[in-house]
Amino acid sequence: MGKKRDTKQIDDIATLFQMTEPQRRRFGEFIEEEKRKGNRGTLNRKGDFTYSELKQKAKEFLDLY
């Protein structure tokens, strides 16, 4: 069974931004926290982020950490 699409996209973004493994884990947590805060994406009704939105979130994340 393959990775869920959203997990794969987060992995792809982490690779694109050359995140370390600990950063990648924290980035995934950051994305989930953003959703809990109501900062949701536009991909679907669950509030998942599009690839472009994830790229922007990665920039925000890396500025914070």
Distance between the termini: 33 Å
Q: What is the overall pLDDT average? A: 92
Give the overall silhouette.
globular
Number of strands: 0
Please compute the radius of gyration using only Cα atoms. 11 Å
Query: In percent terms, what proportion of residues is strand?
Result: under 5%
Uncertain runs are none
Structural class: mainly alpha
Q: Percent helix among the residues?
A: 55-70%
The total count of helices amounts to 3
What letter string, H or E per element, gives the SSE order? HHH
Describe the biggest sheet? none
Describe this structure in words.
With 65 residues, this protein is an all-alpha fold. It contains three helices and no strands. The relative contact order is 0.18. The mean pLDDT is 92.
Offer a few descriptive terms.
65 residues, mainly alpha, 66% helix
Which secondary structure elements does this structure contain, and how are they paired or packed?
Layout: H1 5-16, H2 21-37, H3 51-64
Short description:
This protein is mostly helical and about 60 residues long.
